């Protein structure tokens, strides 16, 4: 049986509907606030972004939902902004973001369409949380350090769950972490369970914007809860999935800590170091390698057993820790594996 032919009228209606849909897509879904209904400019900070809208905390600590001027190219959690607030509240949209201050730092992730996507801005420090459950791994710490070094944001290492350690294990871990202290990284040993060391972390967070990263299960949520004025807030916010739709669970959100510090959190923020790293950035991410980079005999030196490798010489002279050098090679090897897997996948798609 042949397909039923559409009448001219039906076709016209279909086309008209299609046009309407396209138009709707291109139109900003925002309620435009009239310029003369807006108050004077004031400063604020992005708490969270939801598509065309954004929640801004202003100096009175009030959070207001705003539209975004079309001239603004990029606006993410943590951005400092200039806003104008409607003098009379006529809708849920209470103001307009007029401008964004230059960022001191930004956290990005690879994006299929745009190359990279910025997920948060103006972060002062990255707390790399690790523990003994899941197993302690300097390789994972190094991987997070490399990613942190690439952002230019200061990383700090936090060993959580020290309450689970017997004396001997604790000594071993302290020794392993000593390598990082010697490289200039701050190291904290804490337990979110017994609150050991938590006060020192609290002081570290004061007056700064921080993010917590690390493997699933190391105790990031537990630690954050121990540092929040209202312990239930974080879990409540993250699991909320109503009203504003699914963005609530994925959008990075800025939260206030018990002292004067802020925290930006989201699943994406927590996992940022697990995304692909270009191999040339890995060596740079090992801070003690920097003096030697560019001094190997061959420009494309893999720093393995290449002749005339300056890193190899430095290692043999005891200037580079063995475990760090091993971890570097392991990270490079895992990047190669990832690349092969991607090539294999894209090849089999054809
Ligand atoms: N013994 C002990 N257990 C802890 C401590 N901190 C967290 N835990 C436990 O570790 C488990 C994981 O903690 P979470 O806070 O959910 O870990 P997370 O890093 O937020 O995990 P994701 O949300 O998956 O990223 C929970 O069962 C916690 O109770 C601690 O200091 N000591
Ligand atoms: Zn080399």
From TrEMBL:
<comment type="function">
    <text>One of several proteins that assist in the late maturation steps of the functional core of the 30S ribosomal subunit. Helps release RbfA from mature subunits. May play a role in the assembly of ribosomal proteins into the subunit. Circularly permuted GTPase that catalyzes slow GTP hydrolysis, GTPase activity is stimulated by the 30S ribosomal subunit.</text>
</comment>
<dbReference type="GO" id="GO:0005737">
    <property type="term" value="C:cytoplasm"/>
</dbReference>
<dbReference type="InterPro" id="IPR004881">
    <property type="entry name" value="Ribosome_biogen_GTPase_RsgA"/>
</dbReference>
<dbReference type="GO" id="GO:0005525">
    <property type="term" value="F:GTP binding"/>
</dbReference>
<feature type="domain" description="EngC GTPase">
    <location>
        <begin position="121"/>
        <end position="270"/>
    </location>
</feature>
<keyword id="KW-0694">RNA-binding</keyword>
<keyword id="KW-0699">rRNA-binding</keyword>
<feature type="binding site">
    <location>
        <position position="296"/>
    </location>
    <ligand>
        <name>Zn(2+)</name>
    </ligand>
</feature>
<dbReference type="GO" id="GO:0003924">
    <property type="term" value="F:GTPase activity"/>
</dbReference>
<feature type="compositionally biased region" description="Basic residues">
    <location>
        <begin position="1"/>
        <end position="23"/>
    </location>
</feature>
<protein>
    <recommendedName>
        <fullName>Small ribosomal subunit biogenesis GTPase RsgA</fullName>
        <ecNumber>3.6.1.-</ecNumber>
    </recommendedName>
</protein>
<comment type="similarity">
    <text>Belongs to the TRAFAC class YlqF/YawG GTPase family. RsgA subfamily.</text>
</comment>
<dbReference type="InterPro" id="IPR010914">
    <property type="entry name" value="RsgA_GTPase_dom"/>
</dbReference>
<keyword id="KW-0342">GTP-binding</keyword>
<keyword id="KW-0378">Hydrolase</keyword>
<keyword id="KW-0479">Metal-binding</keyword>
<dbReference type="InterPro" id="IPR027417">
    <property type="entry name" value="P-loop_NTPase"/>
</dbReference>
<dbReference type="GO" id="GO:0046872">
    <property type="term" value="F:metal ion binding"/>
</dbReference>
<dbReference type="GO" id="GO:0042274">
    <property type="term" value="P:ribosomal small subunit biogenesis"/>
</dbReference>
<feature type="binding site">
    <location>
        <position position="309"/>
    </location>
    <ligand>
        <name>Zn(2+)</name>
    </ligand>
</feature>
<feature type="binding site">
    <location>
        <position position="301"/>
    </location>
    <ligand>
        <name>Zn(2+)</name>
    </ligand>
</feature>
<keyword id="KW-0862">Zinc</keyword>
<keyword id="KW-0690">Ribosome biogenesis</keyword>
<dbReference type="InterPro" id="IPR012340">
    <property type="entry name" value="NA-bd_OB-fold"/>
</dbReference>
<dbReference type="GO" id="GO:0019843">
    <property type="term" value="F:rRNA binding"/>
</dbReference>
<feature type="region of interest" description="Disordered">
    <location>
        <begin position="1"/>
        <end position="38"/>
    </location>
</feature>
<keyword id="KW-0547">Nucleotide-binding</keyword>
<feature type="binding site">
    <location>
        <position position="303"/>
    </location>
    <ligand>
        <name>Zn(2+)</name>
    </ligand>
</feature>
<feature type="binding site">
    <location>
        <begin position="160"/>
        <end position="163"/>
    </location>
    <ligand>
        <name>GTP</name>
    </ligand>
</feature>
<dbReference type="InterPro" id="IPR030378">
    <property type="entry name" value="G_CP_dom"/>
</dbReference>
<feature type="binding site">
    <location>
        <begin position="214"/>
        <end position="222"/>
    </location>
    <ligand>
        <name>GTP</name>
    </ligand>
</feature>
<dbReference type="Pfam" id="PF03193">
    <property type="entry name" value="RsgA_GTPase"/>
</dbReference>
<comment type="subunit">
    <text>Monomer. Associates with 30S ribosomal subunit, binds 16S rRNA.</text>
</comment>
<feature type="domain" description="CP-type G">
    <location>
        <begin position="104"/>
        <end position="272"/>
    </location>
</feature>
<keyword id="KW-0963">Cytoplasm</keyword>
